[in-house]
Amino acid sequence: MRNIIAGFFILLTIGLMAWVASNGGAYNGGEAGRITEDIGNRVATTKIDSEPKAKSDREKENEALTALRDKAGNIGSFKVSDEYKSKCSSCHGVDGSGMQYGKKLMGPKLFGQSADELYKKLDDFKSGRKENMIMRGLLLHLSQDDLKRLAKEIGEFPARAEALKNSK
């Protein structure tokens, strides 16, 4: 009896598969297929009208170099600690000026904020009062003294930049 029931369901499944295939497929045809094809045609025609001019190799190379310079920071900028370089500069820039890739903000500008302000924000990230998994992960194993030292260093950035400017 069990084999008869299993055979019936197998035949029913095969019959339903054949019926769906003959009607244009579940996802590949039928009314839904025509609708998606129409949408695709509309998108294709609007893309042709608004498509920007292709960039030359020279322009692409200049953009890549600019992005690399922005990522690495200005080589003539003031000195920062290795701790800042390893924990902060990849998102906030080597001089704390903030980083942005396209329209996405990687790390906000730190330059010009006071050490007390920065310490409070760092402590909030570490404790979880401000939600940011990257910041929390970077600060999790730092002591309060480490946070104060880092905040003090970042708070000194404007003075360091001014000293560098005056020395040139």
Automatic annotation (TrEMBL):
Keywords, comma-separated and alphabetical: Electron transport, Heme, Iron, Metal-binding, Transport
Keyword Metal-binding: yes
Domain Cytochrome c residues, every copy: 69-158
GO molecular function terms attached to this record: electron transfer activity; heme binding; metal ion binding
Domain of life from the UniProt record: Bacteria
Protein name, per record: Cytochrome c domain-containing protein
